[in-house]
Amino acid sequence: MRVIVTRVQPQARQWAQALAQQGHDAVALPLIDIRGLADTQLLQQAWQQLAHYTAVMFVSAHAVNYFYEQNKALALSGQALIALNIRAWTTGPASRAAVLAQGLPAGQVDSPPVEAGQFDSEALWQTVQGQIGPGARVLIVRGDTPGSPAASPQGVGRDWLAQRLQAAGAQVEHVVAYQRGAPVWSTAQAAVAAAAATDGSVWLLSSTEAVANLRQLLPGQDWSAARAVATHARIAGAARQAGFGRVVPASPTLASVLASIESLA
């Protein structure tokens, strides 16, 4: 079965390879482009103030990688998160792996349990809420989408976790580590996407922003014959709103995604 993998690179390539090993014709067609910041002043300031935080929450593996990469000198000079014993929070396996790859000990990283199969802010809150009380400070590292109506120096993203933290008495701050945007497709990529709307391909959708970018990249496309696997209920809802004819859920693990893809056979 042909599967269109829409995750950001390099995850799109990695998922496509994993699905190909399971016998699927997987094509990497990212729907979000990621890039670093032209001005890293606020990011550097955040590093310099790490001692004031109880925890740093990374919204994605890209948040981890760009946070460290664009503060490489400061990171190498002190390995601040380790030295200060600050908790690192992540919502899923990919972002947890990215934090561990930076040298943080596993015992200092909090993530939802893999066996739960739910990797979002709600699941993370269940894991970390015991750490938070009045006076706690949490830094949320995330991306921004220039040109978006919601674009902000504090970045763009869900504020559910920040609201829970504030209700528990914590002070929440945000810092932008990278920028997101719709990719620039080649003629060949646009042709692959248009064909996949009607040829029985399965779209693997992993963010609501990706769905929005797809609609922008192919305006007016009829999606009523298209099929998708969505890795969260919010993403499934966005796909249905876009007009996808059939959408099935999956948790963002290879086994769950495979099972959902095969249910569409």
Structure at a glance:
By secondary structure, this protein is an alpha/beta fold.
Describe the protein's architecture and organization.
By secondary structure, the protein is of the alpha/beta class. The chain has two domains: 2-32 and 183-263, Rossmann fold, CATH 3.40.50; 35-180, Rossmann fold. Helices cover 39% and strands 20% of the residues. The strands form two sheets. Strands 3-8-7-4-5-6 form a six-stranded mixed β-sheet. Strands 2-1-9-10-11 form a five-stranded parallel β-sheet, sandwiched between helices. The longest helix has 11 residues, at 11-21. The protein starts with a strand and ends with a helix.
Q: SSE layout and pairings?
A:
Elements: E1 2-5, H1 11-21, E2 25-28, E3 33-35, H2 41-48, E4 55-58, H3 61-69, H4 72-78, H5 80-83, E5 87-90, H6 93-101, E6 109-110, H7 121-128, E7 137-144, H8 160-167, E8 171-181, H9 187-196, E9 202-205, H10 208-217, E10 227-230, H11 233-242, E11 246-249, H12 254-263
Parallel strand pairs: 1-2, 1-9, 4-5, 4-7, 5-6, 7-8, 9-10, 10-11
Antiparallel strand pairs: 3-8
